[in-house]
Each structure stands twice: as C-alpha cells, then as structure tokens.
Description:
Elements: E1 3-7, H1 13-23, E2 30-34, H2 37-40, E3 51-54, H3 64-68, E4 77-79, H4 88-93, E5 103-104, H5 111-126, H6 129-137, E6 153-157, H7 161-172, E7 176-181, E8 194-197, H8 201-210, E9 213-216, H9 230-235, E10 241-244, H10 253-261, E11 267-270, E12 290-292, H11 303-319
Parallel strand pairs: 1-2, 1-3, 3-4, 4-5, 6-7, 6-9, 7-8, 9-10, 10-11, 11-12
Amino acid sequence: MPVILFIADASTPNGQVLAKLVAELADRAKCIVGNDMASFQESPLLSEVDVIVPVVFAGGKADVIRELWPLCPKVKWVHSLAAGVETVVPLLNSLPRGPETPLTNAKGAFSRSLAEYALLAMLHFNKQLPRLQANREAKKWERFTMNELAGQTVGFVGFGDIAQATARVCKGLGMRIVALRNSRSAPASELTDAVFYSDSEADRLEVFRQSDHVICSLPGGASTAKFCGKDAFAAMKASGIFISIGRGTCVDEDALVAALTEGRIAGAALDVFAVEPLPQDSGLWSCPNMILSPHNADLTVSYINQTWGVFLEKLAVFENPDYAGFPSGSTVDKVKGY
C-alpha cells in the first residue's frame, strides 16, 4: 500500500473537497495531508512516503517539497493536480534525486473546458456579439452579414492536449487547422492541415500570418516567455483574433495592447496573464475588442473530479505489481519543462 503525501490547505473550500476524495483512498493508500513542515513532522509515515502530490488550487505550497525532500528518501513519483508545473520543475531539478524522479501532471483534465472557451471567443468575434448587444440597447434593427467559422484557418501555437481537444471541435466545424510544434519528431496528426516548427523563425511567423484565429496554449517557462510578441502580432491579419489559454507569460502583453489599440488585429481573448490577479494599471483592462476572464476558463463544477480522475489513472499504473515506470509521453519532460 503506497504512502501518498498531499500538499494542500485542508481549510480552504477546495481543500475540503480534496479531503473527501483522499478519504476514499483509505483502502488502497496511506495518506497524509498538510501544507507546512509543522503539520507533516508529526506523521510517523514521513520516511515511508512514495508519492508527493502538490495541490496548488487548494492553496498547496509547492516550495514545501524542498524541506520535505531529505525527510522522504523513498519518493518514487511526484504528481501535480494542476496542469502547470513551471514552479515544480525547477524545484525538482535543484534537488538530489529530483531530476530522475518521475513527474506527472493533470494533462488532459481541463482540455475540454478550454476548448469550449476558445470556441466561445471565436464565435464572439465572428458573430459580432458586441454589435448585437449594442443594437439591442439602442433598439436598432440592423441586418448585417455574419461570418462563418467554416473555411477559416485556426492556428495553434503549441499542439499539446489542450490544442488537440480544441482542434477536434474546430475540425468538426469545417475549419482549417495549422499547428506550430516544438519538435520535428512529434508524431503526425490527422487533425492538422499543415504543421510548422518553432525552430524556424519563418515557420513561427507563418502560423500567425495564415490564421484567422491564433490560439496559444503553450506552457510557461524560460523558453516560451513572450513567445507571442510584437513580430507575431505584426504578422497577423488585420481581421485576426488572438486567444491565450496556456500561460500568460507566453504573451508580450504590452505588444498585444499596442496591436489592439492601434487596430492592427481585430480582437483578443485572454484567460491567463503574466501577473495574476491582473494589476489595476494594466493596459489590457481598457483595450478595445478584448475578452478578459480571471483564469477561470477551466474552473468548472467538475474540474476537481476531472483532475482527480487523471490522478487515479496514474495511481493505478503506479500500483501495478509490474510497474517499471510510466509510459513514454505520460510524464513531464523536466528539461523542456512540460
């Protein structure tokens, strides 16, 4: 029976939900829940911990791993119940045994809800919802031509699970799919009509140039910082829409503000930001043709159960008597950071 240590604040609403889920593991694991060394040091199981699970959406302090690490010499696996691991990866890489300890995350848990958000943004601008709302308020009967998503091109900056879930929706609507991928060794996908690679500057800008809608779902990290910047927005069509649902650090927000206020692109929808909560003095608040949401596109009524389901699937692999590691592609690459 594995010993699992959850880093979470059990007093928060999400922490209380987590505590109930953890209790359901009683017949298959010994579990410890806490959020600081004072709460963990009382446990006689600390030296037997097999799995560490930081839970950031329940107030979990991932930095506690650094203090726990020398006291948990048997850790064989770290799992993040969040999809983002930009804080966990450098932490593990700095610890003895950390780089070789498997790290998994909630990849796939939130892809469906983020796909819905991207579709919302595309329809919002494509069907001119602000114009419809303004006409209703003015009691103005104005028949105007609406665009269709069918036949338009959607470009994905990053083509991981979120992007692929979104691409399936877009493909079903008759949209053309182009993708910017990091690795030329990545397998081909039946979802894409064209694939470009980020190691080529011409390729990178071509995705922005061809697309009617650009969807960025890149993970955070040094290699993706301000990946979508002034040159990328300059390459976009004047009618283009930019959508960000990965990590806010991947977008040069000042460059996006300039592109929108100067009318060089038609609109944007952002659910993630470089600094959260978004500072009051950010120019994004007053941008024209902008949808802003407070990093809650994946905050659905079922999101905790969804990420818990992903964890249970991985736990079943770990518990298997023949366990010899997680399947290729199911762990976080701690060199790339995702």
